[in-house]
Amino acid sequence: MLAYVIKIITLAGNAFLTLLSIVMFIVAVFAWFEPPDAQISPNPISEHRQYSVAVIFLLLTSVCILGLAALGISSILLSSSFFLSLYILILLVQISSQVVLSAFAIANSDKIHATILSEWKKKLKDATFECTISNVFEECQSPLSAQIRVERIIFILLSIFLAYQVIMLCLSCYYCEVLTKKERNEAIEKDNTNED
């Protein structure tokens, strides 16, 4: 009974991953064709190499998650321990790559913050208005606080997604063990009937 419940939960979890990957793909396509305003940068956002790399990374991630979810769904529906083992291996690789990429992003955040501040200071230097304590123009406020807030939200979402994937990994490992025992028992039973 527990194995059946875990099978249903794992199937539902992979269905959620499928929906998530489709939403990520739509967001990436929308971001490619409709980039946001540059705000502090003199060049459009779409001309920045980092923006293009981020959008392409989002597209590739959505396709990888879709493929992984499809493999997970098919391995559960086929009740194949081999395909489920392959799914677990790929899920481990994906979790590892997300941890490495997150560490890389955190390590480079200071460089990104410095670039944002230098662009903002250039814009203030060229501005025709004066920023004082009483000035509440949007142009006079540092964009770094908004950037840090967005980074914090992204980090929280990535942490939740990582925890979700670890839960999916544990459930899949348990169900794979159940399938392996079932296949082993069927093979032993088949050998016993062949000997008789």
Automatic annotation (TrEMBL):
Superkingdom in the source lineage: Eukaryota
Keywords: Membrane, Transmembrane, Transmembrane helix
Transmembrane regions: 12-33, 53-77, 84-107, 153-176
Protein name: Uncharacterized protein
Annotated source species: Toxocara canis (Canine roundworm)
